Amino acid sequence: MHNSQNRPVIDALQECILACEHCASACLQEEHVKMMARCIQLDRDCADICRLTATLLARGSVHGKHLLRECIEVCEACAAECAQHDHDHCQACAEACRRCAEACRSLAA
Amino acid sequence: MHNSQNRPVIDALQECILACEHCASACLQEEHVKMMARCIQLDRDCADICRLTATLLARGSVHGKHLLRECIEVCEACAAECAQHDHDHCQACAEACRRCAEACRSLAA
Amino acid sequence: MHNSQNRPVIDALQECILACEHCASACLQEEHVKMMARCIQLDRDCADICRLTATLLARGSVHGKHLLRECIEVCEACAAECAQHDHDHCQACAEACRRCAEACRSLAA
Amino acid sequence: MHNSQNRPVIDALQECILACEHCASACLQEEHVKMMARCIQLDRDCADICRLTATLLARGSVHGKHLLRECIEVCEACAAECAQHDHDHCQACAEACRRCAEACRSLAA
Question: Where does the record place the 4Fe-4S ferredoxin-type domain (chains A, B, C, D) (predicted)?
Answer without folding.
Answer: 6-38
